[in-house]
From TrEMBL:
Highest taxon listed in the record's lineage: Bacteria
Listed name of the protein: OsmC family protein
Pfam families, sorted: OsmC (PF02566)
Native source species: Chitinophaga hostae
Taxonomic path: Bacteria, Pseudomonadati, Bacteroidota, Chitinophagia, Chitinophagales
Gene3D superfamilies attached to this UniProt entry: 3.30.300.20
InterPro entries: KH_dom-like_a/b (IPR015946), OsmC/Ohr_fam (IPR003718), OsmC/Ohrsf (IPR036102)
């Protein structure tokens, strides 16, 4: 993997580009001297958790011929307080599925992703992040 990071302005705004040309803007908050023009790097880690798990879950359910008409994940995460560096202490994911989906298959797909396949989840777990989740069908 190759990532290039380029400063965009005179502050903390950075543009990251992967080897395929996909771009992401990162910045710091206004209170930390940034211009709030991009995602915080630590937010990107949590976004990566959601993206990693979403891909796993959709692959598993597609192989099981489940009819997913809509899917989303909402994540609430907390960082350690009063520490530098401040790691992720916990993250709770809610997986929302719509469609003709077997509830047991959806729950198993999420469990497999979070405990076996998702490298971001394991990376966070190695950093002592407590990961929890729940599955909601047609809610």
């Amino acid at each position: 993997m190759k990532i290039a990071l380029q400063r965009v302005d005179d502050g903390f705004n950075m543009e990251a580009v992967d080897e395929n040309g996909h771009k992401v803007l990162m910045d710091s908050s206004l209170e930390n001297g940034g211009k709030n023009n991009g995602v915080r790097p630590m937010q990107m880690v949590i976004m990566g958790l959601g993206g990693c798990s979403a891909i796993d879950v959709m692959m598993i359910l597609k192989k099981q011929r489940q009819e997913v008409t809509d899917f989303r994940i909402e994540i609430e995460a907390e960082r350690e307080k009063g520490k530098e560096p401040s790691l992720w202490e916990s993250a709770h994911l809610v997986f929302y599925f719509t469609g003709n989906i077997d509830p047991d298959k959806a729950a198993r797909a999420v469990e497999l992703s979070m405990n076996k396949y998702c490298s971001v989840a394991e990376t966070l777990r190695q950093g002592k992040t407590k990961l929890t989740w729940e599955v909601k069908l047609n809610a």
